[in-house]
Amino acid sequence: MAKEKLVVIGGDAAGMSAASQAKRRRRDMEIVVFERSPHTSYSA
Amino acid sequence: MEWETFDHLLIATGAIPACPTVPGAGAVEICGINTLQSGIRLRRIIDDRNAKTAVVVGGGYIGLEMAEAMLRRGMDVSLIDRSPQVMGTLDEDMGQLVSQALLDSGVKLYLEEALTGFETTGGKLTGVSTEKHSLPADVVILGLGVKPNTSLAAAAGIPLGEQGSIRVNQRMETGITGIWAAGDCAETFHLVSRKPFYIALGTVANKQGRVAGVNLGGGYATFPGVMGTAVTKICHLEVARTGLQEKELRKLGFEWVSTVIKSSTKAGYFPGSGEISVKVFAEKGTGRLLGGQIVGMEGSAKRIDTLATALHAGLTVEEMINLDLGYAPPFSPVWDPVVIAAREVIKKL
Predict the structure, then answer these.
(1) Which of B185, B202, B214 lies closest to A25 in CB terms?
(2) How buried is B177 (Cβ within 10 angstroms: 0-12 exposed, 13-18 middle, 19+ buried)?
(3) Facing residue for B10 by CB, picked from A15, A23, A26
(4) Domain B230-346, CATH 3.50.50.60 — does that match?
(5) What is the ipTM of this complex?
(6) A25 in contact with B, Cβ within 8 Å
(7) What is the pLDDT of residues B212-263, one digit of tens each?
Protein backbone atom coordinates (compact mmCIF):
# COMPACT_ATOMS: atom_id res chain seq x y z
CA MET A 1 0.00 0.00 0.00
CA ALA A 2 1.26 3.46 -0.86
CA LYS A 3 2.37 5.63 2.05
CA GLU A 4 -0.02 8.34 3.19
CA LYS A 5 1.27 11.65 1.89
CA LEU A 6 1.19 15.18 3.36
CA VAL A 7 2.09 18.16 1.21
CA VAL A 8 2.94 21.42 3.00
CA ILE A 9 3.09 24.76 1.16
CA GLY A 10 5.41 27.07 3.10
CA GLY A 11 8.39 25.96 5.22
CA ASP A 12 8.54 28.57 7.94
CA ALA A 13 7.09 28.66 11.48
CA ALA A 14 3.68 27.07 10.89
CA GLY A 15 4.64 24.75 8.02
CA MET A 16 7.74 23.24 9.63
CA SER A 17 6.13 23.03 13.11
CA ALA A 18 3.34 20.99 11.55
CA ALA A 19 5.63 18.87 9.37
CA SER A 20 7.96 17.94 12.25
CA GLN A 21 5.06 17.24 14.61
CA ALA A 22 3.31 15.01 12.06
CA LYS A 23 6.54 13.14 11.26
CA ARG A 24 7.24 12.48 14.96
CA ARG A 25 3.85 10.88 15.35
CA ARG A 26 3.72 9.10 12.02
CA ARG A 27 7.16 7.92 10.97
CA ASP A 28 5.64 6.18 7.95
CA MET A 29 4.05 9.34 6.54
CA GLU A 30 5.60 10.82 3.41
CA ILE A 31 5.93 14.60 3.86
CA VAL A 32 6.83 17.06 1.10
CA VAL A 33 7.36 20.74 1.97
CA PHE A 34 7.56 23.47 -0.67
CA GLU A 35 9.41 26.65 0.29
CA ARG A 36 10.11 29.50 -2.13
CA SER A 37 13.11 30.91 -0.24
CA PRO A 38 16.41 29.13 0.54
CA HIS A 39 15.60 29.26 4.30
CA THR A 40 13.30 27.17 6.47
CA SER A 41 12.14 27.85 10.04
CA TYR A 42 14.60 30.69 10.19
CA SER A 43 13.52 32.13 13.51
CA ALA A 44 13.30 28.80 15.33
CA MET B 1 4.95 22.19 -14.67
CA GLU B 2 5.08 19.25 -12.28
CA TRP B 3 2.21 17.99 -10.19
CA GLU B 4 2.43 16.62 -6.67
CA THR B 5 -0.43 14.48 -5.38
CA PHE B 6 -1.45 14.50 -1.72
CA ASP B 7 -3.69 12.80 0.82
CA HIS B 8 -3.52 15.85 3.10
CA LEU B 9 -2.51 19.41 2.24
CA LEU B 10 -1.36 22.08 4.71
CA ILE B 11 -1.34 25.67 3.51
CA ALA B 12 1.24 27.70 5.44
CA THR B 13 1.89 30.47 2.94
CA GLY B 14 2.30 33.25 5.51
CA ALA B 15 1.60 36.93 4.99
CA ILE B 16 2.83 39.61 2.63
CA PRO B 17 3.50 43.29 3.35
CA ALA B 18 0.78 45.71 2.32
CA CYS B 19 2.05 47.91 -0.52
CA PRO B 20 0.84 51.44 -1.18
CA THR B 21 -0.59 52.20 -4.61
CA VAL B 22 1.14 55.53 -5.12
CA PRO B 23 3.43 56.77 -7.93
CA GLY B 24 6.94 55.31 -7.84
CA ALA B 25 6.02 52.34 -5.63
CA GLY B 26 7.91 49.95 -7.94
CA ALA B 27 11.41 51.29 -7.08
CA VAL B 28 13.73 48.50 -5.88
CA GLU B 29 14.84 50.54 -2.84
CA ILE B 30 11.31 50.23 -1.37
CA CYS B 31 11.42 47.21 0.90
CA GLY B 32 8.75 45.25 2.71
CA ILE B 33 10.24 43.15 5.48
CA ASN B 34 8.49 39.81 5.95
CA THR B 35 11.09 37.09 5.38
CA LEU B 36 14.76 36.52 6.16
CA GLN B 37 15.35 36.92 2.44
CA SER B 38 13.71 40.36 2.38
CA GLY B 39 15.93 41.45 5.28
CA ILE B 40 19.06 40.24 3.46
CA ARG B 41 17.90 42.11 0.35
CA LEU B 42 17.46 45.37 2.29
CA ARG B 43 20.87 44.98 3.91
CA ARG B 44 22.50 44.51 0.48
CA ILE B 45 20.81 47.62 -0.88
CA ILE B 46 22.02 49.65 2.12
CA ASP B 47 25.59 48.28 1.78
CA ASP B 48 25.82 48.51 -2.02
CA ARG B 49 24.52 52.06 -2.23
CA ASN B 50 26.06 53.26 1.01
CA ALA B 51 22.57 54.40 1.99
CA LYS B 52 22.51 57.24 4.52
CA THR B 53 18.85 58.17 4.80
CA ALA B 54 15.92 55.89 5.44
CA VAL B 55 12.22 56.63 5.52
CA VAL B 56 9.93 54.21 7.33
CA VAL B 57 6.32 54.28 6.18
CA GLY B 58 4.04 53.12 9.00
CA GLY B 59 4.69 53.07 12.75
CA GLY B 60 3.74 49.52 13.70
CA TYR B 61 5.96 46.72 15.03
CA ILE B 62 7.98 46.25 11.84
CA GLY B 63 8.33 49.99 11.22
CA LEU B 64 9.60 50.70 14.73
CA GLU B 65 11.97 47.75 14.89
CA MET B 66 13.42 48.69 11.51
CA ALA B 67 13.74 52.33 12.58
CA GLU B 68 15.86 51.18 15.52
CA ALA B 69 17.94 48.87 13.30
CA MET B 70 18.74 51.70 10.89
CA LEU B 71 19.54 54.14 13.69
CA ARG B 72 22.06 51.60 14.94
CA ARG B 73 23.68 51.59 11.51
CA GLY B 74 24.15 55.33 11.90
CA MET B 75 21.54 56.26 9.31
CA ASP B 76 19.28 59.28 9.31
CA VAL B 77 15.79 57.90 9.98
CA SER B 78 12.38 59.47 9.37
CA LEU B 79 9.08 57.78 10.12
CA ILE B 80 5.75 58.77 8.62
CA ASP B 81 2.32 57.57 9.72
CA ARG B 82 -1.07 58.86 8.66
CA SER B 83 -2.58 58.43 12.14
CA PRO B 84 -1.89 60.82 15.06
CA GLN B 85 0.16 58.16 16.91
CA VAL B 86 2.60 55.35 16.30
CA MET B 87 1.79 51.81 17.44
CA GLY B 88 -1.90 51.66 16.63
CA THR B 89 -2.31 48.54 18.79
CA LEU B 90 -1.84 50.83 21.83
CA ASP B 91 -4.22 53.57 22.96
CA GLU B 92 -3.23 57.12 22.17
CA ASP B 93 -1.96 57.91 25.70
CA MET B 94 0.39 54.89 25.71
CA GLY B 95 1.36 55.42 22.05
CA GLN B 96 2.43 58.96 22.99
CA LEU B 97 5.12 57.48 25.27
CA VAL B 98 6.46 55.52 22.30
CA SER B 99 6.42 58.60 20.03
CA GLN B 100 8.43 60.51 22.64
CA ALA B 101 10.98 57.68 22.86
CA LEU B 102 11.35 57.69 19.07
CA LEU B 103 12.01 61.44 19.08
CA ASP B 104 14.49 61.05 21.96
CA SER B 105 16.30 58.35 19.98
CA GLY B 106 16.71 60.69 17.01
CA VAL B 107 13.93 59.51 14.69
CA LYS B 108 12.21 62.34 12.81
CA LEU B 109 8.48 61.77 13.23
CA TYR B 110 5.86 62.90 10.72
CA LEU B 111 2.46 61.99 12.14
CA GLU B 112 -0.93 62.62 10.53
CA GLU B 113 0.79 62.68 7.17
CA ALA B 114 -0.34 60.33 4.44
CA LEU B 115 2.12 59.04 1.90
CA THR B 116 1.45 60.54 -1.54
CA GLY B 117 4.30 59.13 -3.62
CA PHE B 118 7.91 58.12 -4.11
CA GLU B 119 10.31 60.34 -6.02
CA THR B 120 12.68 58.65 -8.46
CA THR B 121 15.36 59.86 -10.85
CA GLY B 122 16.23 57.50 -13.67
CA GLY B 123 14.45 54.67 -11.84
CA LYS B 124 16.48 55.28 -8.64
CA LEU B 125 14.68 56.27 -5.45
CA THR B 126 15.50 59.77 -4.23
CA GLY B 127 12.70 60.68 -1.84
CA VAL B 128 9.29 60.20 -0.29
CA SER B 129 6.49 62.72 -0.48
CA THR B 130 3.66 63.20 1.97
CA GLU B 131 0.81 65.68 1.91
CA LYS B 132 3.04 68.22 3.68
CA HIS B 133 6.68 67.26 3.14
CA SER B 134 9.20 65.96 0.66
CA LEU B 135 11.77 63.79 2.46
CA PRO B 136 15.03 62.59 0.92
CA ALA B 137 15.43 58.80 1.03
CA ASP B 138 18.02 56.27 -0.12
CA VAL B 139 15.85 53.40 1.11
CA VAL B 140 12.22 53.04 2.23
CA ILE B 141 10.86 50.46 4.65
CA LEU B 142 7.21 49.56 4.30
CA GLY B 143 5.61 49.06 7.69
CA LEU B 144 1.99 49.31 6.59
CA GLY B 145 1.02 45.97 8.04
CA VAL B 146 0.62 42.63 6.33
CA LYS B 147 -2.15 40.77 4.63
CA PRO B 148 -2.59 36.99 4.53
CA ASN B 149 -0.99 35.41 1.46
CA THR B 150 -4.07 33.52 0.38
CA SER B 151 -4.46 34.12 -3.36
CA LEU B 152 -3.62 30.45 -4.01
CA ALA B 153 -6.18 29.27 -1.44
CA ALA B 154 -8.81 31.66 -2.80
CA ALA B 155 -8.19 30.42 -6.36
CA ALA B 156 -8.69 26.86 -5.11
CA GLY B 157 -12.08 27.81 -3.67
CA ILE B 158 -11.10 27.48 -0.01
CA PRO B 159 -13.38 29.63 2.17
CA LEU B 160 -11.76 32.79 3.57
CA GLY B 161 -12.60 34.81 6.70
CA GLU B 162 -11.27 37.89 8.53
CA GLN B 163 -9.17 40.15 6.30
CA GLY B 164 -8.98 37.41 3.66
CA SER B 165 -7.29 34.85 5.94
CA ILE B 166 -8.16 31.18 5.52
CA ARG B 167 -11.09 30.16 7.73
CA VAL B 168 -10.19 27.22 9.95
CA ASN B 169 -11.76 25.32 12.81
CA GLN B 170 -9.97 24.75 16.15
CA ARG B 171 -8.15 21.73 14.70
CA MET B 172 -6.87 23.94 11.83
CA GLU B 173 -9.00 22.29 9.13
CA THR B 174 -10.24 24.54 6.34
CA GLY B 175 -13.72 24.30 4.86
CA ILE B 176 -12.44 21.70 2.35
CA THR B 177 -11.88 18.14 3.63
CA GLY B 178 -8.22 17.13 3.65
CA ILE B 179 -6.96 20.71 3.40
CA TRP B 180 -5.53 22.41 6.47
CA ALA B 181 -4.09 25.87 7.13
CA ALA B 182 -1.88 27.38 9.83
CA GLY B 183 0.17 30.48 10.57
CA ASP B 184 0.01 33.99 9.14
CA CYS B 185 -2.29 32.89 6.29
CA ALA B 186 -4.90 31.44 8.69
CA GLU B 187 -7.67 32.98 10.74
CA THR B 188 -7.81 32.69 14.51
CA PHE B 189 -10.29 33.52 17.26
CA HIS B 190 -10.14 36.34 19.81
CA LEU B 191 -10.80 34.92 23.28
CA VAL B 192 -11.89 38.25 24.81
CA SER B 193 -14.12 39.58 22.00
CA ARG B 194 -15.24 35.99 21.21
CA LYS B 195 -15.03 36.82 17.49
CA PRO B 196 -12.97 35.58 14.53
CA PHE B 197 -9.70 37.52 14.39
CA TYR B 198 -6.65 37.89 12.19
CA ILE B 199 -3.18 38.44 13.65
CA ALA B 200 0.15 37.66 12.01
CA LEU B 201 2.57 36.65 14.76
CA GLY B 202 5.24 33.98 15.09
CA THR B 203 3.88 32.73 18.41
CA VAL B 204 0.48 32.02 16.90
CA ALA B 205 2.06 30.44 13.80
CA ASN B 206 4.08 28.01 15.91
CA LYS B 207 1.07 27.02 18.01
CA GLN B 208 -1.25 26.61 15.05
CA GLY B 209 1.44 24.61 13.22
CA ARG B 210 1.87 22.30 16.19
CA VAL B 211 -1.88 21.73 16.44
CA ALA B 212 -2.18 21.04 12.71
CA GLY B 213 0.78 18.63 12.90
CA VAL B 214 -0.63 16.71 15.88
CA ASN B 215 -3.92 16.26 14.04
CA LEU B 216 -2.25 15.35 10.74
CA GLY B 217 -0.15 12.82 12.66
CA GLY B 218 -3.27 11.05 13.90
CA GLY B 219 -3.59 12.80 17.30
CA TYR B 220 -6.11 15.30 18.60
CA ALA B 221 -5.28 18.91 19.42
CA THR B 222 -7.11 22.21 19.27
CA PHE B 223 -6.07 25.86 19.17
CA PRO B 224 -8.68 27.89 21.06
CA GLY B 225 -7.46 31.36 20.06
CA VAL B 226 -5.53 34.41 21.16
CA MET B 227 -5.67 37.44 23.47
CA GLY B 228 -3.84 39.65 20.97
CA THR B 229 -0.70 39.64 23.11
CA ALA B 230 2.33 41.25 21.50
CA VAL B 231 5.62 42.79 22.67
CA THR B 232 8.33 44.81 21.00
CA LYS B 233 11.09 47.26 21.82
CA ILE B 234 12.28 50.47 20.27
CA CYS B 235 15.80 51.38 21.43
CA HIS B 236 15.66 51.44 25.25
CA LEU B 237 11.85 51.33 25.50
CA GLU B 238 9.84 48.13 25.88
CA VAL B 239 6.24 47.97 24.64
CA ALA B 240 3.58 45.33 25.31
CA ARG B 241 -0.16 44.85 24.92
CA THR B 242 -2.79 42.17 25.44
CA GLY B 243 -6.56 41.89 25.21
CA LEU B 244 -8.79 44.65 23.93
CA GLN B 245 -7.82 48.31 23.58
CA GLU B 246 -10.08 51.37 23.80
CA LYS B 247 -11.11 51.48 20.15
CA GLU B 248 -11.96 47.76 20.18
CA LEU B 249 -13.91 48.03 23.45
CA ARG B 250 -15.91 50.92 22.00
CA LYS B 251 -16.63 49.08 18.76
CA LEU B 252 -17.71 45.93 20.62
CA GLY B 253 -20.03 47.89 22.93
CA PHE B 254 -18.29 47.09 26.21
CA GLU B 255 -18.71 49.30 29.27
CA TRP B 256 -15.36 49.66 30.98
CA VAL B 257 -13.11 51.60 33.30
CA SER B 258 -9.37 52.06 32.85
CA THR B 259 -6.38 53.48 34.64
CA VAL B 260 -2.74 54.21 33.89
CA ILE B 261 -0.21 53.89 36.70
CA LYS B 262 3.50 54.67 36.83
CA SER B 263 5.81 52.48 38.88
CA SER B 264 9.32 51.05 38.63
CA THR B 265 10.74 47.88 37.10
CA LYS B 266 12.71 47.03 40.27
CA ALA B 267 12.51 48.34 43.85
CA GLY B 268 12.82 52.12 43.46
CA TYR B 269 16.10 52.27 45.40
CA PHE B 270 17.69 49.38 43.49
CA PRO B 271 20.40 50.23 40.89
CA GLY B 272 19.07 50.06 37.34
CA SER B 273 15.45 50.53 38.33
CA GLY B 274 13.49 52.19 35.49
CA GLU B 275 10.08 53.70 34.92
CA ILE B 276 7.16 51.51 33.82
CA SER B 277 3.63 52.62 32.84
CA VAL B 278 0.79 50.10 33.02
CA LYS B 279 -2.73 50.60 31.68
CA VAL B 280 -5.49 48.13 32.46
CA PHE B 281 -9.13 47.82 31.46
CA ALA B 282 -11.86 46.23 33.58
CA GLU B 283 -15.47 45.59 32.67
CA LYS B 284 -17.97 47.77 34.55
CA GLY B 285 -20.11 45.71 36.91
CA THR B 286 -18.25 42.40 36.70
CA GLY B 287 -14.72 43.74 37.23
CA ARG B 288 -13.43 41.27 34.64
CA LEU B 289 -10.02 42.18 33.21
CA LEU B 290 -10.40 43.12 29.51
CA GLY B 291 -6.90 44.09 28.48
CA GLY B 292 -3.71 45.90 29.31
CA GLN B 293 -0.80 47.84 27.87
CA ILE B 294 2.72 48.35 29.22
CA VAL B 295 5.43 50.81 28.16
CA GLY B 296 8.68 51.15 30.06
CA MET B 297 12.35 50.43 30.54
CA GLU B 298 14.08 47.05 30.51
CA GLY B 299 12.07 44.51 32.51
CA SER B 300 8.69 45.98 31.50
CA ALA B 301 7.44 44.09 28.47
CA LYS B 302 7.25 40.52 29.75
CA ARG B 303 5.06 41.67 32.66
CA ILE B 304 2.30 41.59 30.03
CA ASP B 305 2.33 37.80 30.47
CA THR B 306 0.76 38.19 33.92
CA LEU B 307 -2.08 40.14 32.32
CA ALA B 308 -2.36 37.68 29.41
CA THR B 309 -2.58 34.76 31.85
CA ALA B 310 -5.17 36.56 33.99
CA LEU B 311 -7.18 37.27 30.82
CA HIS B 312 -6.91 33.65 29.71
CA ALA B 313 -8.21 32.54 33.10
CA GLY B 314 -11.01 35.14 33.00
CA LEU B 315 -9.89 36.76 36.27
CA THR B 316 -11.48 39.88 37.69
CA VAL B 317 -9.20 42.72 38.78
CA GLU B 318 -10.17 41.94 42.40
CA GLU B 319 -8.86 38.40 41.92
CA MET B 320 -5.56 39.80 40.65
CA ILE B 321 -4.74 41.65 43.88
CA ASN B 322 -3.60 38.55 45.74
CA LEU B 323 -1.72 36.90 42.88
CA ASP B 324 1.44 35.38 44.35
CA LEU B 325 3.92 37.08 42.02
CA GLY B 326 7.66 36.93 42.61
CA TYR B 327 9.28 39.75 44.54
CA ALA B 328 12.81 40.70 45.50
CA PRO B 329 14.28 44.20 45.01
CA PRO B 330 16.35 43.33 41.86
CA PHE B 331 13.17 42.20 40.07
CA SER B 332 10.20 44.22 41.19
CA PRO B 333 8.74 46.70 43.67
CA VAL B 334 7.00 44.85 46.52
CA TRP B 335 3.69 45.36 44.71
CA ASP B 336 4.20 44.32 41.09
CA PRO B 337 3.27 47.19 38.71
CA VAL B 338 0.46 45.14 37.09
CA VAL B 339 -1.07 44.51 40.53
CA ILE B 340 -0.77 48.21 41.39
CA ALA B 341 -2.74 48.91 38.17
CA ALA B 342 -5.39 46.36 39.16
CA ARG B 343 -5.72 47.95 42.61
CA GLU B 344 -6.12 51.40 41.07
CA VAL B 345 -8.71 50.39 38.49
CA ILE B 346 -10.86 48.76 41.18
CA LYS B 347 -11.40 52.21 42.68
CA LYS B 348 -13.20 53.25 39.52
CA LEU B 349 -15.48 50.22 39.22
Answers:
(1) B214
(2) exposed
(3) A15
(4) yes
(5) 0.96
(6) yes
(7) 999 999 999 999 999 999 999 999 999 999 999 999 999 999 999 999 999 9
